[in-house]
Amino acid sequence: xxxxxxxxxxxxxxxxxxxxxxxxxxxxxxxxxxxxxxxxxxxxxxxxxxxxxxxxxxxxxxxxxxxxxxxxxxxxxxxxxxxxxxxxxxxxxxxxxxxxxxxxxxxxxxxxxxxxxxxxxxxxxxxxxxxxxxxxxxxxxxxxxxxxxxxxxxxxxxxxxxxxxxxxxxxxxxxxxxxxxxxxxxxxxxxxxxxxxxxxxxxxxxxxxxxxxxxxxxxxxxxxxxxxxxxxxxxxxxxxxxxxxxxxxxxxxxxxxxxxxxxxxxxxxxxxxxxxxxxxxxxxxxxxxxxxxxxxxxxxxxxxxxxxxxxxxxxxxxxxxxxxxxxxxxxxxxxxxxxxxxxxxxxxxxxxxxxxxxxxxxxxxxxxxxxxxxxxxxxxxxxxxxxxxxxxxxxxxxxxxxxxxxxxxxxxxxxxxxxxxxxxxxxxxxxxxxxxxxxxxxxxxxxxxxxxxxxxxxxx
Length: 460
Ligand code: FCB
Fold this sequence. Notes:
The structure is a single chain. The protein is α/β, with parallel strands linked by helices. It has 16 helices and 13 strands. The strands form 3 sheets. The chain has an 8-stranded parallel β-barrel, surrounded by 6 helices. It has a 3-stranded mixed sheet with strand order 6-8-9. Strands 12-13 form a two-stranded antiparallel ribbon. The longest helix is centred in the middle third of the chain and has 25 residues, at about 200-225. It is globular. Mean pLDDT is about 95; it is low at about 1-15. The structure holds beta-D-fucopyranose (FCB). Beta-D-fucopyranose binds near residues 35, 180, 237 and 417. Beta-D-fucopyranose (FCB) binds near residues 32, 35, 180, 181 and 363.
């Protein structure tokens, strides 16, 4: 990394960190399979629900798809080299279920399994710990055709998939996560129709929530059996849920959104019950013994955090509330996401207080619409400011007692950002999608320097 733009030197606070973090604190980066791999039909990969959804007109900005994405499937060695230059200690990625099991269950696809062997071995050779997430939204289409998250059998299908992954990679991978952001893919897929399978149906949503929770329990058991020393978690997005207006109805809507968004998964998984707002609705789907099957001992809490969420009362909406925007006066990122580092600090403290598990921030980062300047550089000052302010909030939370042990930037690379397609870029590394050229942005240089400086800090 040769670029040393002067913006890296502007802030004296870079080196005088407000609160030193322990030497063992893990700095990492995150990605997910569908967003970066491409190679959608290579080596026997089956279709995923995102392949299907992207082909439905009007679903994705610009008609984009993940067919090629960052072509990481073929360029993973270059991407590992980029991570090595960043100096990250860990890399969180996800495995594509349809690459390993093209039909979702049944015979595994050896070339797909071999791809993750190569990736994991390459990471270990580079001194980077692989953190493996089983499900980052790319369900095999074949399982959707059999009912997807709407049917109870899926807990078993997921458990079998988890066993396959754990047996194959458990000799080299210690950190496993079952699900990424279950509340996002269930609420957006079954409540708001923004993600596949594109439904707005409350009873389908409730079934999906419960079956994902059962699958989590089955997945934890399968990993634990195959890899007794594994460190297992689920990754939850947690953000303050706020009312759009000052009415009592909006306040109730925000509480309901909070139940779906922040608590429908961690509460049953970690505390053994559904949030009070949802419990009566869940009664129809819960079978005897289910809550015990869901509540499994895990070892850490994966926390993804971006912006607060807002709700407005809406009696006609299937869930009784509508998704709302942040107030117009809110500070926003270039893609319009609210900036509120204090909310991040408060969330870390709240998650610590409620669940008492070591927290790893598995996603946090800033999106932008970016192009290189005439010199071919991407001087992403706003992302650097974002990382500084959210890093500061994290340090405040640690100083106030939150047990936070690692932080993974979303994302290593610009990638396929779901409904926004390739328009919104979150990478520390710029990707020219026409040529697949990678260019580390100024934020990549900043992050590398910060990690290096942290390693130099005296042990507190
Ligand atoms: C999270 C997703 C991740 C990425 C970021 C920006 O909700 O887990 O895949 O899209 O948002």
